[in-house]
Amino acid sequence: MSQAAASFNPFDLRGRVAMVTGCNTGIGAGIAVALARAGADIVGVNRSEPVETAQQVCALGRRFVAVRADLASISAIPGVMEQALAEMGHVDVLVNNAGIIRRADALDFSEEDWDAVMDTNLKTLFFLSQSVARHMLARGAEQGGAWRGGKIINIASLLSFQGGIRVPSYTAAKSGVLGLTRLMANEWAAKGINVNAIAPGYIETNNTEALRQDVGRAREILQRIPAGRWGAPQDLGGAAVFLASSAADYVHGHTLAVDGGWLAR
Ligand code: NDP
Protein backbone atom coordinates (compact mmCIF):
# COMPACT_ATOMS: atom_id res chain seq x y z
CA MET A 1 0.00 0.00 0.00
CA SER A 2 1.34 3.49 -0.87
CA GLN A 3 2.09 5.93 1.96
CA ALA A 4 -0.75 8.22 0.72
CA ALA A 5 -3.24 5.34 0.76
CA ALA A 6 -2.07 4.21 4.21
CA SER A 7 -2.49 7.68 5.72
CA PHE A 8 -5.83 8.45 3.97
CA ASN A 9 -8.40 9.58 6.54
CA PRO A 10 -11.97 9.55 5.13
CA PHE A 11 -13.13 11.85 7.93
CA ASP A 12 -10.56 14.55 7.11
CA LEU A 13 -12.36 17.85 6.34
CA ARG A 14 -9.27 20.01 5.77
CA GLY A 15 -9.81 22.38 2.86
CA ARG A 16 -13.60 22.15 3.21
CA VAL A 17 -15.88 25.02 4.17
CA ALA A 18 -18.96 24.20 6.25
CA MET A 19 -21.86 26.62 6.60
CA VAL A 20 -23.70 25.94 9.89
CA THR A 21 -26.90 27.83 10.65
CA GLY A 22 -27.73 28.58 14.28
CA CYS A 23 -24.27 27.79 15.64
CA ASN A 24 -23.98 30.38 18.42
CA THR A 25 -25.35 27.89 20.93
CA GLY A 26 -26.64 24.34 21.46
CA ILE A 27 -26.48 21.66 18.79
CA GLY A 28 -25.22 24.01 16.07
CA ALA A 29 -22.28 25.05 18.23
CA GLY A 30 -21.46 21.40 19.02
CA ILE A 31 -21.54 20.55 15.31
CA ALA A 32 -19.52 23.59 14.18
CA VAL A 33 -16.73 22.80 16.66
CA ALA A 34 -16.69 19.10 15.69
CA LEU A 35 -16.44 19.98 11.97
CA ALA A 36 -13.62 22.42 12.75
CA ARG A 37 -11.82 19.77 14.79
CA ALA A 38 -12.01 17.53 11.70
CA GLY A 39 -10.39 20.35 9.70
CA ALA A 40 -13.22 22.40 8.19
CA ASP A 41 -13.40 26.18 8.12
CA ILE A 42 -16.78 27.45 9.32
CA VAL A 43 -19.34 29.98 8.13
CA GLY A 44 -21.72 30.55 11.05
CA VAL A 45 -25.14 32.02 10.22
CA ASN A 46 -26.98 33.50 13.20
CA ARG A 47 -29.11 36.41 14.32
CA SER A 48 -26.72 37.07 17.21
CA GLU A 49 -22.92 37.14 17.37
CA PRO A 50 -21.54 33.60 17.87
CA VAL A 51 -18.66 34.73 20.05
CA GLU A 52 -17.89 31.49 21.91
CA THR A 53 -18.20 29.27 18.86
CA ALA A 54 -15.92 31.58 16.88
CA GLN A 55 -13.34 31.44 19.68
CA GLN A 56 -13.46 27.64 19.85
CA VAL A 57 -13.18 27.23 16.08
CA CYS A 58 -10.26 29.68 15.86
CA ALA A 59 -8.52 27.98 18.81
CA LEU A 60 -8.51 24.83 16.65
CA GLY A 61 -6.62 26.75 13.96
CA ARG A 62 -9.60 27.01 11.61
CA ARG A 63 -11.19 30.10 10.05
CA PHE A 64 -14.59 31.30 11.28
CA VAL A 65 -16.72 33.77 9.34
CA ALA A 66 -19.79 35.13 11.14
CA VAL A 67 -22.77 35.99 8.92
CA ARG A 68 -25.53 37.88 10.71
CA ALA A 69 -28.95 36.99 9.25
CA ASP A 70 -32.51 36.37 10.32
CA LEU A 71 -33.43 33.04 8.74
CA ALA A 72 -37.11 33.54 9.57
CA SER A 73 -37.36 34.93 6.03
CA ILE A 74 -35.86 33.57 2.83
CA SER A 75 -35.12 37.16 1.81
CA ALA A 76 -31.95 36.78 3.95
CA ILE A 77 -30.53 34.03 1.73
CA PRO A 78 -28.93 36.06 -1.10
CA GLY A 79 -27.02 38.17 1.46
CA VAL A 80 -25.87 35.04 3.33
CA MET A 81 -24.53 33.46 0.14
CA GLU A 82 -22.89 36.68 -0.99
CA GLN A 83 -20.98 37.18 2.28
CA ALA A 84 -20.04 33.50 2.65
CA LEU A 85 -18.64 33.29 -0.89
CA ALA A 86 -16.92 36.68 -0.69
CA GLU A 87 -15.09 35.65 2.50
CA MET A 88 -14.53 31.91 1.99
CA GLY A 89 -14.75 31.48 -1.80
CA HIS A 90 -16.83 28.32 -1.63
CA VAL A 91 -19.14 26.19 0.53
CA ASP A 92 -18.74 22.39 0.58
CA VAL A 93 -21.04 21.47 3.47
CA LEU A 94 -24.33 22.98 4.64
CA VAL A 95 -25.77 22.11 8.04
CA ASN A 96 -29.37 23.33 8.28
CA ASN A 97 -29.61 23.52 12.06
CA ALA A 98 -31.33 26.84 12.96
CA GLY A 99 -34.72 26.13 14.42
CA ILE A 100 -37.36 27.34 16.81
CA ILE A 101 -40.24 25.74 18.71
CA ARG A 102 -43.61 27.14 19.79
CA ARG A 103 -45.73 25.32 22.36
CA ALA A 104 -49.53 25.42 22.68
CA ASP A 105 -52.43 22.94 22.56
CA ALA A 106 -53.50 22.06 19.02
CA LEU A 107 -56.96 23.50 19.81
CA ASP A 108 -55.46 26.91 20.65
CA PHE A 109 -52.52 27.03 18.23
CA SER A 110 -52.17 30.35 16.39
CA GLU A 111 -51.44 31.01 12.74
CA GLU A 112 -48.55 33.25 13.81
CA ASP A 113 -46.85 30.39 15.67
CA TRP A 114 -47.55 28.06 12.76
CA ASP A 115 -45.92 30.41 10.23
CA ALA A 116 -42.93 31.32 12.44
CA VAL A 117 -41.92 27.68 12.90
CA MET A 118 -42.64 26.57 9.32
CA ASP A 119 -40.73 29.53 7.86
CA THR A 120 -37.58 29.10 9.95
CA ASN A 121 -37.51 25.30 10.27
CA LEU A 122 -38.71 24.24 6.82
CA LYS A 123 -39.02 26.98 4.19
CA THR A 124 -35.59 28.48 4.83
CA LEU A 125 -34.05 25.00 5.08
CA PHE A 126 -35.29 24.23 1.56
CA PHE A 127 -34.40 27.51 -0.11
CA LEU A 128 -30.98 27.77 1.55
CA SER A 129 -30.28 24.19 0.41
CA GLN A 130 -31.37 25.18 -3.09
CA SER A 131 -28.99 28.16 -3.13
CA VAL A 132 -26.07 26.16 -1.75
CA ALA A 133 -26.74 23.27 -4.17
CA ARG A 134 -26.77 25.70 -7.12
CA HIS A 135 -23.43 27.08 -5.94
CA MET A 136 -21.98 23.56 -5.48
CA LEU A 137 -23.08 22.48 -8.96
CA ALA A 138 -21.72 25.65 -10.59
CA ARG A 139 -18.41 25.09 -8.82
CA GLY A 140 -18.43 21.43 -9.82
CA ALA A 141 -18.97 22.38 -13.46
CA GLU A 142 -16.00 24.79 -13.28
CA GLN A 143 -13.70 22.26 -11.62
CA GLY A 144 -14.70 19.19 -13.65
CA GLY A 145 -13.11 15.96 -12.37
CA ALA A 146 -11.41 17.72 -9.44
CA TRP A 147 -14.75 18.39 -7.71
CA ARG A 148 -15.27 16.30 -4.57
CA GLY A 149 -19.01 16.84 -4.23
CA GLY A 150 -21.12 18.60 -1.64
CA LYS A 151 -22.87 17.58 1.57
CA ILE A 152 -26.12 18.87 3.01
CA ILE A 153 -27.14 17.83 6.51
CA ASN A 154 -30.59 18.69 7.83
CA ILE A 155 -31.34 18.66 11.55
CA ALA A 156 -34.59 16.79 12.09
CA SER A 157 -36.02 15.58 15.43
CA LEU A 158 -37.67 12.67 17.21
CA LEU A 159 -40.84 14.55 16.24
CA SER A 160 -40.03 13.75 12.61
CA PHE A 161 -41.19 10.24 13.61
CA GLN A 162 -43.59 10.83 16.51
CA GLY A 163 -46.57 13.12 17.05
CA GLY A 164 -45.53 14.85 20.26
CA ILE A 165 -47.94 17.10 22.12
CA ARG A 166 -48.48 20.88 22.08
CA VAL A 167 -46.03 21.42 19.17
CA PRO A 168 -48.14 21.07 16.00
CA SER A 169 -46.08 23.33 13.71
CA TYR A 170 -42.79 21.86 14.99
CA THR A 171 -43.99 18.29 14.35
CA ALA A 172 -45.21 19.26 10.88
CA ALA A 173 -41.98 21.07 10.03
CA LYS A 174 -39.68 18.32 11.32
CA SER A 175 -41.69 15.63 9.49
CA GLY A 176 -41.33 17.80 6.40
CA VAL A 177 -37.55 17.97 6.92
CA LEU A 178 -37.34 14.21 6.35
CA GLY A 179 -39.53 14.39 3.24
CA LEU A 180 -37.38 17.17 1.80
CA THR A 181 -34.18 15.32 2.75
CA ARG A 182 -35.33 12.35 0.68
CA LEU A 183 -36.52 14.52 -2.21
CA MET A 184 -33.29 16.54 -2.40
CA ALA A 185 -31.27 13.32 -2.09
CA ASN A 186 -33.26 11.79 -4.98
CA GLU A 187 -32.76 14.81 -7.22
CA TRP A 188 -29.14 15.61 -6.38
CA ALA A 189 -27.44 12.26 -5.65
CA ALA A 190 -26.49 11.73 -9.30
CA LYS A 191 -25.12 15.29 -9.41
CA GLY A 192 -22.62 14.60 -6.60
CA ILE A 193 -24.45 16.10 -3.62
CA ASN A 194 -25.30 13.99 -0.57
CA VAL A 195 -28.35 15.09 1.39
CA ASN A 196 -28.95 13.42 4.75
CA ALA A 197 -30.51 14.21 8.11
CA ILE A 198 -29.64 13.84 11.78
CA ALA A 199 -32.48 13.34 14.25
CA PRO A 200 -31.32 14.39 17.72
CA GLY A 201 -33.05 12.98 20.76
CA TYR A 202 -33.44 15.00 23.97
CA ILE A 203 -30.42 17.31 24.06
CA GLU A 204 -29.57 19.81 26.82
CA THR A 205 -29.90 23.18 25.03
CA ASN A 206 -31.90 26.42 25.34
CA ASN A 207 -34.60 24.75 23.26
CA THR A 208 -35.29 22.17 25.99
CA GLU A 209 -34.70 24.36 29.04
CA ALA A 210 -38.41 24.79 29.87
CA LEU A 211 -38.90 21.03 29.48
CA ARG A 212 -35.98 20.28 31.83
CA GLN A 213 -37.39 22.66 34.44
CA ASP A 214 -40.60 20.63 34.55
CA VAL A 215 -39.12 18.13 37.02
CA GLY A 216 -41.79 15.44 36.59
CA ARG A 217 -41.65 15.51 32.79
CA ALA A 218 -37.83 15.64 32.77
CA ARG A 219 -37.74 12.52 34.99
CA GLU A 220 -40.21 10.69 32.72
CA ILE A 221 -38.05 11.50 29.69
CA LEU A 222 -34.86 10.39 31.41
CA GLN A 223 -36.41 7.07 32.42
CA ARG A 224 -37.34 6.38 28.79
CA ILE A 225 -33.87 7.06 27.34
CA PRO A 226 -32.02 3.71 27.06
CA ALA A 227 -28.62 5.44 27.42
CA GLY A 228 -29.77 6.77 30.82
CA ARG A 229 -28.88 10.41 30.20
CA TRP A 230 -29.92 13.42 28.14
CA GLY A 231 -27.67 14.20 25.18
CA ALA A 232 -25.14 17.02 25.08
CA PRO A 233 -24.58 19.20 21.98
CA GLN A 234 -21.17 17.52 21.53
CA ASP A 235 -22.94 14.16 21.06
CA LEU A 236 -24.08 15.33 17.61
CA GLY A 237 -20.56 16.09 16.40
CA GLY A 238 -19.52 12.62 15.28
CA ALA A 239 -22.64 12.08 13.16
CA ALA A 240 -22.15 15.47 11.51
CA VAL A 241 -18.47 14.83 10.74
CA PHE A 242 -19.36 11.44 9.25
CA LEU A 243 -22.12 12.83 7.01
CA ALA A 244 -19.95 15.80 5.96
CA SER A 245 -17.00 13.59 5.05
CA SER A 246 -16.07 11.36 2.14
CA ALA A 247 -16.79 8.37 4.43
CA ALA A 248 -20.47 9.09 3.63
CA ASP A 249 -20.06 9.46 -0.14
CA TYR A 250 -22.54 6.62 -0.80
CA VAL A 251 -25.04 7.65 1.90
CA HIS A 252 -28.05 9.48 0.46
CA GLY A 253 -31.43 10.40 1.95
CA HIS A 254 -30.64 8.71 5.28
CA THR A 255 -31.62 9.89 8.75
CA LEU A 256 -29.18 9.13 11.53
CA ALA A 257 -30.86 9.21 14.95
CA VAL A 258 -28.57 10.41 17.75
CA ASP A 259 -30.98 9.88 20.58
CA GLY A 260 -29.46 7.62 23.25
CA GLY A 261 -31.60 4.79 21.85
CA TRP A 262 -34.99 6.54 22.20
CA LEU A 263 -36.36 5.31 18.85
CA ALA A 264 -35.08 1.79 19.49
CA ARG A 265 -37.32 1.45 22.52
P1 NDP B 1 -30.98 26.46 20.54
O1 NDP B 1 -32.15 27.31 20.87
O2 NDP B 1 -29.86 26.32 21.50
O3 NDP B 1 -30.35 26.92 19.16
C1 NDP B 1 -31.13 27.35 18.10
C2 NDP B 1 -30.23 28.07 17.13
O4 NDP B 1 -31.01 28.48 16.00
C3 NDP B 1 -29.60 29.32 17.72
O5 NDP B 1 -28.24 29.34 17.34
C4 NDP B 1 -30.34 30.45 17.05
O6 NDP B 1 -29.50 31.56 16.80
C5 NDP B 1 -30.73 29.84 15.73
N1 NDP B 1 -31.91 30.50 15.17
C6 NDP B 1 -33.18 30.40 15.59
N2 NDP B 1 -33.97 31.20 14.84
C7 NDP B 1 -33.16 31.80 13.94
C8 NDP B 1 -33.37 32.73 12.91
N3 NDP B 1 -34.59 33.23 12.64
N4 NDP B 1 -32.32 33.17 12.19
C9 NDP B 1 -31.06 32.69 12.44
N5 NDP B 1 -30.80 31.78 13.40
C10 NDP B 1 -31.84 31.36 14.15
O7 NDP B 1 -31.61 25.06 20.20
P2 NDP B 1 -31.03 23.64 19.80
O8 NDP B 1 -29.56 23.66 19.71
O9 NDP B 1 -31.67 22.67 20.66
O10 NDP B 1 -31.66 23.46 18.35
C11 NDP B 1 -30.91 23.32 17.17
C12 NDP B 1 -31.70 22.44 16.21
O11 NDP B 1 -31.84 21.15 16.76
C13 NDP B 1 -33.10 22.96 15.92
O12 NDP B 1 -33.41 22.74 14.56
C14 NDP B 1 -33.96 22.07 16.82
O13 NDP B 1 -35.26 21.95 16.33
C15 NDP B 1 -33.21 20.77 16.70
N6 NDP B 1 -33.50 19.78 17.74
C16 NDP B 1 -33.19 20.04 19.06
C17 NDP B 1 -33.45 19.06 20.02
C18 NDP B 1 -33.10 19.25 21.47
O14 NDP B 1 -33.43 18.36 22.27
N7 NDP B 1 -32.47 20.32 21.87
C19 NDP B 1 -34.04 17.79 19.65
C20 NDP B 1 -34.31 17.63 18.25
C21 NDP B 1 -34.04 18.61 17.35
P3 NDP B 1 -29.84 33.01 17.43
O15 NDP B 1 -29.76 32.83 18.91
O16 NDP B 1 -28.82 33.90 16.85
O17 NDP B 1 -31.22 33.31 16.97
Q: Would you state the CATH class? A: Alpha Beta
- Adjacency order of strands in the biggest sheet: 3-2-1-4-5-6-7
The rounded Rg comes to: 18 Å
- Give helix and strand order, one letter per element, not per position: HEHEHEHEHEHEHHHE
First CA to last CA: what distance? 44 Å
- How much of the residues is beta strand, in percent? 5-15%
The number of distinct structural domains comes to 1
Helix content: 40-55%
Mean pLDDT: 97
Structural class: alpha/beta
CATH topology: Rossmann fold
Number of helices: 9
Number of strands: 7
- What oligomeric state do the depicted chains represent? single chain
- What ligand species are in this complex? NADPH dihydro-nicotinamide-adenine-dinucleotide phosphate
How would the blueprint of this fold be written?
Layout: H1 3-7, E1 17-21, H2 26-37, E2 41-46, H3 51-59, E3 64-68, H4 77-88, E4 93-96, H5 111-143, E5 150-155, H6 168-188, E6 193-200, H7 209-213, H8 215-224, H9 237-244, E7 255-258
Parallel strand pairs: 1-2, 1-4, 2-3, 4-5, 5-6, 6-7
Bound molecules: NADPH dihydro-nicotinamide-adenine-dinucleotide phosphate.
NADPH dihydro-nicotinamide-adenine-dinucleotide phosphate binds next to helix 2.
Describe the structure.
With 265 residues, this protein is an alpha/beta fold. The protein has one domain (11-264): NAD(P)-binding Rossmann-like Domain (Rossmann fold). The protein has nine helices and seven strands, in the order αβαβαβαβαβαβαααβ. It has helices at residues 3-7, 26-37, 51-59, 77-88, 111-143, 168-188, 209-213, 215-224, 237-244, and strands at residues 17-21, 41-46, 64-68, 93-96, 150-155, 193-200, 255-258. It has a seven-stranded parallel beta sheet, sandwiched between helices. Helix 2 packs across helix 9 (237-244) and helix 5 runs parallel beside helix 6. The chain is globular and about 55 Å long. It starts with a helix and ends in a 7-residue tail after the last strand. Bound molecules: NADPH dihydro-nicotinamide-adenine-dinucleotide phosphate (NDP). Residues 21-22, 24-28, 46-48, 70-72, 97-100, 120, 155, 157, 200, 202-203, 205-208 line the site of NADPH dihydro-nicotinamide-adenine-dinucleotide phosphate.
